[in-house]
Amino acid sequence: MPNPSSPSPNSNDGYDIAFKALLGVLAVAVPLSNLVWLGGNATAWMTGSGSAAPYQPIGALLHPDQLWPGLNHTALLVGTRIAPTAVLLALAALGALWWSRHKNTSGGKKTSFRGLARRRDIEPLLAKAMTAKARSLRPSLADAKHVAPRDTGVLLGDLQGTRHEVRMGWEDVAVAIMAPRSGKTTSLAIPSILSAPGPVLLTSNKAGGDAYTATIDARATVGRVWSMDPQQIAHAERTMWWNPLADAKTLDGAGRLAGHFLAASVDASQQGDFWSKAGSNILSQLFLAAALDDRPITDVMAWLAFPADRTPLDILRDHGHAAVAAQLKGTVEGPPETRDGIYETARQYAAALLNTEIAAWVTPQEDTPEFKPSEFVDSTDTLYLLSKDGGGGASALIAACADSVMRAATARAERAGGRLDPPMLAILDEAANVCKISDLPDLYSHLGSRGIIPITILQSYRQGQKVWGDAGMDAMWSASTIKVVGPGIDDPDFADKLSRMIGDHDVESTSISHSESGKSTSVSMRQERILAADAIRALPKGSALCFATGMRVAALDMKPWYQQPEADEISAASERASKAITERAVAKTTPKQSDFTTAA
User: Which positions are tagged coiled coil (predicted)?
Assistant: First the structure.
């Protein structure tokens, strides 16, 4: 039977509530009484209505008229009631604001998470360290008195809850995984392009209201703008042509070009079957023959249509490629059903070259400048490569051009002592749709050391696995020194993988128990995930996680272009470019008066 004299749990709870209420009263009364005493003395001094009162904060709070008898009612009311109360409320508001920015909770738009990186954890990515690193990587900045932030690296965002800018340097390579409409273009691609100090390469499947329209005017002020738009996404006038066979004069180069057509048409899981490999081999052999004889790439389609044509065989033999010629001859003279299947596969891969409008971008054009990657990488020009999703052979040309530029940049860096200065930025937006470079994961291992900064932007991790396979995507993810993960990660396996990479932290757990002898409190420590998979999925728009090699994972507040000081200018330029696209599209679909005259 319980002892009637012992305190009950309910009575203990009542004592706790009373004690907390007392603390609350003291938290208000102590600062308010001191503010009243200060306010009363300040009012007496400013009005000249008496001398300063001795330090009696309680008396000032309860009987201010006794401490300052010379003050009139209005002055006493303002100095000892209104002003101190206003000051106390302002201090409370500032304290609440500070607390909301630094508290460890998981709610609200600016969600912060306990256990993620603080400033000291990512010091190498902040302004001072980035400036020093930029001076060491770029000889042109070594003796500069002032280095602009844009010259130190690519802005990723602010460390969450602070104004400390986090940047990736000129030796980093990045992968960004962000769902559609989560800020990958507005917060990453566009700001990076606008602030790039050297040549810029952008791949995209959109034009209106995208990185193309937002940056084309600004980039035109720092260098020449090249636009390759074979499928007329931006309805751009053809002011350039590029020769994809320029790098195909060797068997390796021809094989790479054929590989782009294969990757654009077949997923990674299907590229190892007989027909895919055989079709790719025929393309590489014909590309080599056309390149050696300085023929346009469209001649390859004529050879594919007539396998009995001996022209490519003769070219290969004349240029010392007897073994390749023998392989081609063996295919041509093999069983008809096998030969026809191989050639039909190759025709399907390169079918886009049958489209004269697409072919015009990759064949010599009179009075049209030729785009030369070797010259581009030594400039501050910009190259926009546009293609539709599932563009097949058209996207193969986009991937081939991007690959050619990056290989030319590598060669230029080697001639320049190892690195490009200024560095080249390659924004591979929608890479899994329009820029399927098969060995991109392998390129990631050395591009950063050459001053070539790729940022591959994907909508999901599985999207990358579909293009490069599980091993390839894992390799690219591992080789990336900067990984940016934004909102909208709906893959539970990937979200859990990220959660495990972020790690655990110690959480203090308090338990209270009641007994006949009273209440006891115990404190213990337990481990829990810093960010659970569901929290990663629920990242709010405008935020992202940054995984930098050798550092704790940091939460970022991303900085979209429309929040920058030059936003109005960028917006106006984007509207002009979008309007121009619309006008060009309308002009193409509106019949000309001459058409009616001809018909009549």
Answer: none
Is residue 401 assigned to a domain?
no
The pTM of this model reads 0.79
Specify the DSSP element, H or E, that contains 482. strand 482-485
For 480, the 3-state DSSP assignment is coil
Strand residues in 186-290 grouped as ranges (E): 200-204, 225-228
In a domain, 333, yes or no: yes
For the chain, helix (H) and strand (E) counts, in that order, are: 24, 13
Closest C-alpha to 386, from 225, 145, 573, 149: 225
pLDDT tens digits, one per residue of 42-64: 888 888 777 788 888 888 788 88
Asked, for residue 271, whether it belongs to a domain, the answer is yes
Of the candidates 123, 102, 97, 96, the one whose C-alpha atom is nearest the C-alpha of residue 114 is 102
Mean pLDDT over 421-437 rounds to 92
d(CA 387, CA 228): 9
pLDDT the model gives residue 598: 47
Give the ranges where 384-491 is alpha helix by DSSP (H). 393-415, 431-434, 440-443, 461-479
Dump pLDDT digits (tens) for 491-509. Answer: 999 999 999 999 887 666 6
Three-class DSSP labels, 52-102: CCCCCHHHHHHCHHHHCCCCCHHHHHHHHHHHHHHHHHHHHHHHHHHHHHH
Per-residue pLDDT at 391 exceeds 80: no
Q: Pick from 195, 184, 158: which is nearest to 423 by CA?
A: 195
Contact 451, 424 (CB under 8 A): yes
The rounded distance, in Å, linking the Cα atoms of 173 and 170 is 8
The two beta strands, 174-177 and 482-485, are parallel
Q: Which is nearest to 233 in space by CA: 214, 257, 209?
A: 209
The residue among 323, 340, 356 that closes a domain is 356
Residue 28's nearest CA partner among 57, 55, 3 is 57
Half-sphere exposure of 358 (CA within 13 A, CB side): 23
Strand partners, 526: 507
CB atoms within 10 A of CB 37: 24
Tens digits of residue pLDDT in 9-24: 444 556 667 777 888 8
pLDDT of residue 1: 44
Point out the domain boundary residue: 356, 391, 423: 356
Amino acid at 314: D
Nearest in space to 496 (alpha carbons), one of 466, 472, 459, 529: 529
Using an 8 Å Cβ cutoff, are 192 and 472 in contact?
Answer: no
Average pLDDT, the chain: 87
DSSP 435: -
Annotate 370-405 with DSSP letters as a single string: BP-HHHHTTSS-EEEEE--TT-THHHHHHHHHHHHH
pLDDT of residue 110: 46
Q: In Å, how far from its chain's centre is CA 188?
A: 4
Encoded tokens for 62: 């309860």
In whole angstroms, give the CA distance from residue 437 to residue 425: 17
Contact 225, 379 (CB under 8 A): no
Give the residue among 377, 399, 485, 395 at the shortest CA–CA distance from 443.
399
The answer to whether residue 396 is domain-embedded is: no
Count other Cβ atoms within 10 Å, centred on residue 468. 26
- Can you give the pLDDT at residue 43? 83
Total domains in the chain come to 2
- Structural domain containing residue 53: 12-102
Q: Which residues contact 385 (CB under 8 A, 6 or more apart)?
A: 201, 202, 203, 204, 228, 398, 401, 402, 434, 435
